[in-house]
Specification:
Length: 254
């Protein structure tokens, strides 16, 4: 399905990362992948994960708060791959103290950090990737229902995800004429490193599993499969959307 396609994945921290499940789905579909990791701390993790299944994948250091690392990443991936067909943005961060208690107490630094890393980075990476998407492309990001509804403890991350989902629509409008599509996947809660930073995660997961039409939590692999669909020609008419992969939780009233 994605044979001869080349893409870059931001956000693999470990084997539980949604980005890793996405990489596996893309790899199975035949795509060639490059990975980025935030700092030396994570390099060994990413290397160990990719070595067995995707040994030829370039691994590049890229902290999105450092513009020079972003520029170098796209320079290197351009040299290696010649062009890009897709980009997976699976990055988010907010200081831990902002993810508990009242949203009201969010301070300026926490707000700016959360919005910069979790929302602005999509625009930053899309701008860098677009010139390499010479045959069109697909950009996919990960969001959460907390963008639209209040989840206690999700706080500033909900505000950042709202900005992210809006960015998806503006970017889709800007990049559509170049046949570059931009979409978000709104995943149900999944136990990952980042998710563990959100207070009340287990209550949230239990509630989702009880209330969702499918009566269970979503698997990271299901999110990965949807990302693979969004990167391929089967989704060629879809852009600017937020697609829920949450076992149907979001459709429920009472
Ligand atoms: P992970 O912790 O596995 O992945 C988050 C990634 O973001 C990590 O690789 C992390 O690196 C990276 N990151 C943070 N700051 C930066 C930075 N400055 N530059 C580059 N990378 C950075 O968690 P998930 O897989 O859960 O998260 C992936 C995405 O999915 C996020 O956008 C998240 O909000 C979203 N999502 C998650 C859900 C869940 O329940 N798990 C539900 C819905 C959406 P590092 O570890 O070094 O900080």
């Amino acid at each position: 399905m994605l044979k001869d396609k080349r893409g870059i994945i931001f956000g693999v921290a470990n084997k539980r990362s949604i980005a890793w499940a996405t990489a596996q789905a893309l790899n199975q579909a035949g795509a060639r992948l490059a990975f980025t990791y935030q700092g030396e701390r994570l390099k060994d993790n990413v290397e160990a994960l990719t070595r067995a299944e995707m040994p030829d994948s370039p691994l590049l250091a890229c902290d999105v708060t450092k513009q020079e690392e972003v520029a170098e990443t796209f320079k290197q991936v351009g040299a290696e791959f010649g062009r890009l067909d897709f980009l997976i943005h699976s990055i988010a961060f907010a200081p831990r103290e902002a993810l508990e208690g009242d949203y009201l107490k969010t301070d300026r630094d926490a707000f700016i950090t959360a919005l910069e890393i979790s929302a602005y980075s999509l625009t930053q990476l899309a701008r860098a990737a677009a010139p390499l998407m010479t045959e069109g492309g697909s950009i996919v990001t990960m969001t959460f229902h907390g963008a639209e509804k209040v989840y206690q403890g999700y706080n500033v991350m909900g505000v950042a995800k709202a900005a992210l989902e809006s960015s998806v629509r503006y970017l889709a409008a800007d990049l559509g004429p170049q046949n570059i599509r931009v979409n978000a996947i709104s995943a149900g809660p999944i136990q990952t490193l980042s998710a563990r930073g959100v207070s009340g995660l287990s209550t949230m997961m239990k509630h989702h599993a009880e209330r969702a039409p499918l009566r269970r939590n979503v698997e990271a692999s299901e999110v990965g499969n949807t990302a693979a669909f969004l990167c391929g020609s089967l989704s060629s008419g879809i852009t600017g959307e937020t697609i829920y992969v949450d076992c149907g939780y979001n459709i429920m009233g009472i």
